[in-house]
Design brief:
The protein is of the alpha+beta class. Among the domains are: 175 residues, Uridine Diphospho-n-acetylenolpyruvylglucosamine Reductase, domain 3 (2-Layer Sandwich), CATH 3.30.465.10; 117 residues, Alpha-Beta Plaits (2-Layer Sandwich). Helices cover 31% and strands 23% of the residues. It has 17 helices and 18 strands. It has an 8-stranded antiparallel sheet with strand order 14-9-13-12-16-17-15-18. Strands 3, 4, 5, 6, 7 and 8 form a 6-stranded antiparallel sheet that branches. Strands 1-2 form a two-stranded parallel ribbon. β6 and β7 form a beta hairpin. α7 packs antiparallel against α13. It is globular. The N terminus is likely disordered. The structure holds flavin-adenine dinucleotide. Flavin-adenine dinucleotide (FAD) binds next to α4, β8, β15 and β17.
Length: 478
């Protein structure tokens, strides 16, 4: 199994500068112009974190390797100019050299900045910093008409700037993003707080959101894991520069297991900032257990460089190609399995209802919780500055619930469990991320994901419909 350089890249690459970036973009525009007018345009990208199956290869795509670069970092202004296909692994390795980090860093190393902005992302800073697209200051987009426009919160392309998040590359491809950065601490001090019921956990999220602290100690990072209704945890992180011992979960020990305990007092731990940022990547949250990577004997033999989400992706791709898991189930006389790999968002005050329902309805555990709130910029028109394709309400706390597993398929209804989830999420005033399978009908999809606004933008930025439209791409998996 060949791993590409992008799969294995471990460190920062040189900062390339604007002249090199211009050359890469000119090449991209030439590639675009060379595609016959009646052929669809797509990306040829080495890595992906898109989970839904896609239609078979539709011809050669745009080569975008040159966009996997940090173009410039301004440590005084705390900003970075970044190529649209730059992986967070490269981005973080580069900005950490300046003692800085993006405001939100998704957990998987090969997620790219452009992918997280057009396909949304989230992490444990989202309760104070919102989602990755909210710290974008401006973005260059290669539109469906083959030109590059610069979109910002104000100016002629402000509508595109607002409509780009959750458009999944169907309005164009970002070639450069200017983003805000924040100071990075050398270490993160962790408290894993155990809850025996979901109600108190929800109350604690509310309290931390309002005060930025818990039991008198600052909270800079916040996420959680539910194992069962009576065993759940919030992990509270605090930035610190105090020297001291740190844990390492990139070797034989496994991060998500380290969270569990049975004490009334929080369990404390410490990580370097880089190990904190990538704490979930080593075992792809807990999903590496499906491959045996958490069995101590296998783990000892498993090369460290392959304990990372991009390698598990390769294994998933093999499984999908050869239906390995379904064949093994068939041998045991079991039906094939329905994949239930989703991230959803519900308002905080509906979260207990959703999680309780989920735990009763589906045999999947653990599940991940990550609170989020739209970022407040301090501008007077904040409340009007929404993101129409993923319309969360300002000043309202939501909780992202992530679950990545499978259940026995319901005969005759291969999407049964996913449909149940969609219905429940909509009933609770929530939304579902669109990186995985979706089953919505066109009208419901339109009402949830800003359909009218999207179509207006598409007519402006992709008048000849060279790019797929969002519904075809996401639901019909074209
Ligand atoms: C199991 C799983 C768990 C996940 N968990 C999390 C999580 O916890 N936190 C989180 O933040 N996210 C999570 N994600 C979602 C992930 O952030 C999104 O799928 C994101 O879009 C992936 O970005 P990528 O760079 O890998 O893009 P790709 O997978 O390569 O592409 C995603 C889509 O974006 C388009 N696209 C890619 N690059 C660009 C660009 N530069 N400009 C315009 N369009 C572009 C592609 O055409 C495609 O439609 C998860 C995904 C999976 C599968």
């Amino acid at each position: 199994m060949a791993l590409s350089r992008a799969d294995l890249d471990l460190g920062a690459k040189p900062i390339t500068g604007f002249a090199e970036h211009r050359r890469v973009v000119e090449d991209l525009i030439e590639q675009f112009r060379a595609i016959p007018a009646d052929s669809p345009v797509r990306l040829a990208k080495k890595t992906s974190n898109l989970f839904r199956a896609r239609a078979a290869n539709r011809g050669p795509g745009l080569r975008v390797d040159g966009l996997d670069a940090v173009i410039a970092v301004d440590p005084d202004a705390r900003t970075a100019d970044v190529g649209g296909m730059c992986t967070y692994e490269h981005l973080v390795a580069t900005t950490l050299r300046f003692g800085l980090l993006p405001l939100v860093v998704p957990q998987l190393k090969t997620i790219t900045l452009g992918g997280a902005v057009t396909g949304l992302g989230i992490e444990s800073t989202s309760f104070r910093n919102g989602l990755p697209h909210e710290s974008v200051l401006e973005v260059d987009v290669l539109t469906g008409s083959g030109e590059v426009v610069t979109a910002g919160p104000d100016g002629p392309h402000a509508d595109l700037f607002r409509g780009f998040p959750n458009s999944y590359g169907t309005l164009g491809y970002s070639t450069r993003l200017k983003i805000a950065l924040e100071p990075a601490p050398p270490f993160v001090a962790l408290r894993h707080v155990r809850f025996h019921a979901l109600g108190p956990l929800i109350d604690a999220i509310d309290e931390i959101g309002a005060s930025g602290s818990y039991l008198g100690e600052t909270v800079d990072y916040l996420d959680g894991v539910v194992f069962t209704a009576d065993e759940s945890y919030l992990t509270l992180g605090r930035k610190t520069d105090e020297p001291g011992p740190v844990s390492d979960y990139t070797g034989q020990r496994i991060y998500y297991r380290s969270i569990r305990h049975d004490s009334t007092a929080p369990k404390r731990d410490r990580l370097t900032i880089a190990d904190y940022i990538w704490r979930w990547d080593t075992d792809w949250f807990w999903c590496s257990r499906a491959f045996g990577a958490q069995n101590p004997r296998i783990r000892r033999l498993w090369p460290k460089r392959y304990r990372r989400s991009s390698f598990y992706w390769k294994l998933i791709a093999l499984d999908q190609r050869f239906s390995i898991a379904d064949r093994l189930e068939a041998r045991k006389g079991n039906p094939p399995r329905e994949r239930v790999v989703q991230d959803i968002e519900v308002p905080l005050d509906r979260t207990e209802e959703f999680v309780s329902w989920f735990l009763d309805a589906l045999p999947i555990e653990p599940i991940w919780l990550c609170p989020l709130r739209l970022r407040e910029s301090g501008r007077p028109d904040d409340a009007d500055r929404r993101w129409p394709l993923y319309p969360l309400e300002p000043k309202r706390t939501y909780v992202n619930v992530g679950f990545w597993s499978s259940v026995p398929m319901t005969p005759g209804d291969p999407g049964h469990a996913n449909r149940l989830i969609e219905k429940r999420v909509s009933a609770l005033d929530g939304h579902k991320s669109l990186y995985s399978e979706a089953y919505y009908g066109p009208e419901e999809f339109d009402s949830l994901y800003g359909g009218a606004h999207y179509r207006r933008l598409r007519d402006i930025y992709d008048p000849d419909h060279r790019l797929l439209d969002l519904y075809s791409k996401v639901v019909q998996r074209r």
